[in-house]
Amino acid sequence: MIEWANAVLQGILLGGLYALFAAGLSLIFGVMRLVNIAHGDLIVLAAYLGLSTSVTLGVHPFVALLIVLPLMAAVGYALQRGLLNRTLGPDILPPLLVTFGLSVIIQNALLEGYTADPQKLSAGPLETASIPLGELSVGVMPLLTFGIAVAVIAGLQWIFYATGLGRGFRAVSDNQEIAQLMGLNKAHVFGLAMALALAVTAIAGILLGIRTSFDPSIGGGRLIFGFEAVIIGGLGSLWGTLAGGVILGVAQTVGAKIDPGWQLLAGHIAFLLVLAVRPNGLFPRVEH
Amino acid sequence: MSDPVVSRATRTSRIAVVVALLALIVLAAAPWWAGRADMRLMSEIFLYLSLASLWNLMAGYAGLVSVGQQAFVGFGGYMLFALTVFGGLHPIAAILLAGLLASALSVPIASLIFRLKGAYFAIGTWVVAEVFRLSFAQISALGGGSGSSLPVGIVRSLASSRSGREALTYWLALGAAAVVILSVYLFLRSQRGLALTAIRDSEVAASGLGINIWRTKLEVYVVTSALTAIIGGLIFLQKLRISPDAAFSINDWTAFVIFIVVIGGIGTLEGPIIGTIIFFALREFLADFGTIYLMVLGLVAIIVMLKAPKGVWGLVRDRFDLELFPLSYRVRLDQDRKKT
Lengths: 288, 340
Description:
The complex is a heterodimer of chains A (288) and B (340). Chain A is an all-alpha fold and 288 residues long.
């Protein structure tokens, strides 16, 4: 019994990481209806940037975030203004196929630069520290990851609904032409949205790298987890992605408890079940 | 002035038919003029051409952009192994049955993932492919995660001599490509194809004309799934060895196929043919560079998508008004026709 409770608890905490994968996807879809197939590879790119920074400067991965986060945000802004803005339009093919090409390019560039050897970010004693909780014990790192995820989503929610920047996001999301008439530069707003999304991706990448080993090929899998969390939670809802991440995380850890080979399969099945029963996700944003 | 004439065929398209038939005869005779390595390469080209034509039908005409067709390639491959080893079927019968099973399987899958729109549909197909990969990796009778080889007895049942087997698998690949291209062409020429083109151009207008969009897309999905599984069976009949990672590889069976179609020209029948030729030519020159080759492909695809969304064939067609597969209608006055 206690083992199952432990599996569920670990799953909930793992869900925080998946919510971070999902938040960036959800954000850019919400603002510009873009689904970025390269999202997972950008998470892995952030993990590698964290690795290079923490190794060359000899600093903790969290300190490396001070460099990686602005760097990824800059990459996001440049990517959006230089490439992705040109693909947006009524046709869904260009953004899809361009980000797919981007995914292949990032993956192979990482392979060329860092080889296929698995790498890991070292967070020192933090990795093994734990807090006793009744008969269970909770790792500090998973707890911290979950806390960061909640804080990031709360922060995004605040930006979206309480700042001028967020008002710009919502305006272009609702009606691009009228937002332009009101003096918003669409291309710039989209650039900022992508910058923000990749800043979140930077956090997700560093936390991923501390949690498990990574190699250039795992981006696709991370994209799928993020995507499943978005759909389970309901499109357009930021808190929904956290719920989706938690459900996916619990399905995976409980599946792994039943049979180690079932970990990923159980997560996918949970996703397909939600799709069958509640196609709009569990917590869809109310349409106005 | 005389009455206008509506025709689909052009002089170019009539010449193309003759050239295609001659090419088919020359290619069918390859076992008598080509070496072993050349025949293997040509078989691979034909199978990629088939996958590209099928993906193009889905993405370019039905708007179903899938990044999960490896699900059906791998399924076809695994069914070839399962039905011959455990069902005792002849390999060719097993491959055909695999197509039938894939079409049956694709209906419930479609009923789930058709709920996702556009790009989300794409990632949904990828999830399905992952479910396939993880499920087949669980089946220990088929070698689990490490895979298995096709037993010698089954390979021998194709033909007793090695050269006989090689000729047979080559003909199967060539025949498959010819059948796939012809079926896609006939499908697009039919009333259903017209409905599909209408949906591609405007879903709202098409449904206003009484076209059942969901049903038309489902038909395309089911047919391409079945044919993709058959091609998958043929691919692994060539390879004789299967493993979950090879069978459900997104790079091999989807990324390459997408690059072929995008570079050649999406939404045209000629595009996948041109794309396949370019893809294999690039591979011959750049394959030694491995990762660089893939980066170049990705870059070329992005540039094509941004600068020439209709691909290489689109450029050719716009410049010279060519159409090898006569799909569009041309209206001409009789006088014009005499001039040409």
